Amino acid sequence: MARPDGRLTHELLPGEKGPQDACGVFGVWAPGEEVAKLTYFGLYALQHRGQESAGIATSNGEQLLVYKDMGLVSQVFDETALNALTGHIAIGHTRYSTTGASTWENAQPTLGATAGGTVALGHNGNLTNTAELIDLVAERYGPRRRGELARGNTTDTALVTALLAGDADHTLEATALEVLPRLRGAYCLVFMDEHTLYAARDPHGVRPLVLGRLERGWVVASETAALDIVGASLVREVEPGELIVIDSDGLRSTRFAPATPTGCVFEYVYLARPDTTIAGRSVHAARVEMGRTLAREFPVDADLVIPVPESGTPAAIGYAAESGIRYAQGLTKNAYVGRTFIQPSQTLRQLGIRLKLNPLREVIRGQRLVVVDDSIVRGNTQRALVRMLREAGAAEVHVRISSPPVRWPCFYGIDFASRAELIATGLSPEDVGRSIGADSLGYISLEGMVAATEQPSSQLCTACFTGQYPIPLPPSDRIGAALVEQTELPLGAPEDGLAGVLGGVGGAGALEHP
Question: For the whole model, what pTM was predicted?
Answer without folding.
Answer: 0.88
